[in-house]
Design goal:
The complex is a heterodimer of chains A (236) and B (284). With 236 residues, chain A is of the alpha/beta class. Chain A has helices at residues 43-50, 73-78, 96-99, 112-118, 120-124, 135-147, 165-180, 192-198, 216-221, 223-230; strands spanning 3-14, 17-28, 32-37, 58-63, 66-67, 81-84, 153-157, 184-189, 201-206, 209-215. Chain A has a single domain, classed as Rossmann fold (3-Layer(aba) Sandwich), CATH 3.40.50. Chain A contains 10 helices and 10 strands. In chain A, the strands form 2 sheets. Chain A has a 6-stranded mixed sheet with strand order 6-7-8-3-9-10, sandwiched between helices. In chain A, strands 2-1-4-5 form a 4-stranded antiparallel sheet, covered by helices on one side. Chain A is globular and about 45 Å long. Chain B is mainly alpha-helical. Chain B has 11 helices and no strands. In chain B, helix 1 runs antiparallel to helix 8. Chain B starts with a helix and ends in a 13-residue tail after the last helix. The model of chain B has no long low-confidence stretch (mean pLDDT 91). The chains are: A alpha/beta (236), B mainly alpha (284).
């Protein structure tokens, strides 16, 4: 196995505030890795550092064996990273079909027709404006948009946010299918129990530092650790 | 009728200018004060090459000349300022406008130059429609054609869809794999093309002077505000409205011909701060 993503000792700032304090993380080929942590722990900042949307000041980001620290975001994306941002970031004033024409076409199994087959609901709503979709439909659109790049690594930032449980299960099934088809996945979630159902390994961030890394099943079974590290209850 | 039509012609120049300014403001986030001098440049380039390629040849080639210079300016001067306070690029283009205007004076002279049109375009179509020359019809037709083509590109082509998406969220399109450096340059080029074209069309109608651009740029900004920031159709509409209003005023109350533009802007800002077709919530 080789690492598709290797973050090493990353320090990232928003202006003068130091958000990430030497974060390291690895995703091996074909693996589904969960990145957990409380709100404000630095999960989204870690993703933004990988995508170079908020480029790290120190440390390195390697993708598929290439050092892409502080490369342009589009170069990172076309190198094989499908990014589903927090809050989905759909283009609300444009139709579903237009939203799907934004990413460049990179040849592979996924194209506009096959993502419509994956999400028939999007095909039905292809003429609707992105802003008129439900939260679940927007999430599907954001995933479909990322798949069009035929990525080797799929990064999802809080896909369950604001969705009804039944929709969340559907999204999780889609993610599981991508993993089965050989995609590596980095799943960022506040809802730890949900993410650990799918993950092979997990990391936990707290105040910009990695405080746990290990087997997902072990973390899931360790109730005390779950409480203290991720700050989530098993009730979720 | 006659003065409204005169106003419409001037409004067309405002509309073409405002359209380019609006595009560049939207995606590049630059208030391009040099837009007027790119317009003048288009006119002077056409003036220079017309003896060799004829009127129609210059109409097609000169805007591309302006675009080449525009792309160089974007690449060398404006690109380093993306992502910074918009004040930086505003000051840069403001200075650039003055430098370019003086360069035009140095190269082509301070006095106005007549721009010779083919005779068949310059004759009125009939005695009763004495203000309607062939040239004015050509001008209107070209404007409709080019504006229509621009809207079709924005609506149906990938680059147009990306420009619209990027107007809303540049960061997200870059994370989707879109090369925003290329997209911003292309968008700047389209804006400058419209300015260059406006320059040539205006040269044939108003004649050429080094300050033709700076006299048209303020009304073009007003057109954007009246039409609504963020709306390209609004920019076109705003340009035509203030052009016609100023044309009519010129006939009845000539001293107010310029001030009427700003009166309209003030009224719009008071009654509808977002402009006629502007996005809700941008300024309210």
């Amino acid at each position: 196995m080789s690492a598709v993503l290797e973050i090493d000792g990353v320090h990232t700032y928003y202006g003068k505030s130091h958000i990430l304090h030497g974060v390291s993380l690895k995703v091996e080929e074909g693996e589904l890795v969960a990145l957990l942590g409380r709100n404000g722990a630095g999960k989204t900042t870690t993703m933004r550092s990988v995508m170079s949307l908020t480029p790290p000041k120190a440390g390195s980001v390697k993708l598929f064996g290439r050092d892409l620290t502080r490369a342009s975001p589009h170069k990172i994306a076309v190198s094989g990273v499908g990014y589903v941002p927090e809050g989905r970031k759909i283009f609300g004033h444009m139709s579903v079909h237009e939203n799907l024409q934004v990413p460049p076409e990179i040849s592979g199994p996924w194209n506009i027709e096959t993502v419509y087959e994956l999400f028939p609901r999007l095909y039905e709503r292809r003429a609707s404006k992105g802003g008129r979709l439900s939260g679940g439909e927007q999430e599907m659109l954001a995933i479909a948009r990322a798949l069009l790049l035929n990525p080797k690594l799929l990064i999802l930032d809080e896909p369950s946010q604001g969705l009804a449980p039944v929709i969340v299960q559907e999204v999780m099934r889609t993610i599981a299918r991508m993993k089965k088809e050989g995609m590596s996945v980095l799943l960022v979630e506040q809802n730890a129990m949900l993410a650990l159902q799918l993950a092979d390994r997990a990391y936990v961030l707290a105040d910009g530092e990695m405080v746990y890394s290990g087997d997902a099943a072990t973390l899931k079974a360790d109730k005390a650790r779950m409480e203290s590290l991720a700050g989530v209850s098993h009730a979720a | 009728m006659y003065s409204a039509f005169n106003g419409l012609i001037v409004g067309i120049f405002y509309a073409l200018m405002a359209l380019g300014l609006s595009l560049i403001l939207g995606l590049n986030g630059v208030i391009n004060f040099a837009h007027g001098t790119f317009m003048a440049l288009g006119g002077y380039l056409a003036f220079t090459i017309e003896p060799y390629v004829g009127f129609w040849g210059s109409l097609i080639l000169a805007p591309f000349g302006a675009v080449v210079l525009g792309l160089l300016v974007e690449r060398i001067l404006i690109r380093p300022l993306y992502g910074r306070d918009p004040l930086f690029s505003l000051l840069l283009t403001f200075g650039l406008a003055m430098i370019m205007e003086d360069l035009i004076r140095t190269i082509w002279g301070s006095v106005g130059q007549p721009f010779a049109l083919p005779n068949y375009l310059n004759t009125p179509l009939s005695a009763s429609l004495f203000f309607l020359t062939g040239y004015r019809l050509v001008l209107i037709a070209i404007t409709i054609l080019v504006t229509g083509a621009l809207f079709a590109v924005l609506r149906y082509t990938r680059i147009g869809i990306r420009i619209r998406a990027g107007n809303a969220d540049l960061e997200t399109i870059s994370a989707m794999g879109v090369n925003i450096f290329f997209l911003r340059a292309a968008n700047f080029g389209i804006g400058i093309f419209l300015a260059g074209l406006a320059g040539i069309l205006a040269a044939g109608q108003l004649g050429l002077s080094p300050s033709i651009g700076s006299s048209l740029i303020m009304p073009s900004f007003v057109a954007i505000i009246v039409g609504g920031v963020g709306s390209l159709i609004g920019s076109v509409l705003g340009g035509l409205i203030i052009g016609i209003a100023s044309g009519i005023t010129a006939a009845f109350f000539p001293v107010a011909q310029e001030v009427v533009i700003y009166v309209i802007m003030a009224v719009v800002l008071v009654l509808r701060p977002r402009g006629l077709l502007g996005q809700e919530g941008l300024f309210e």
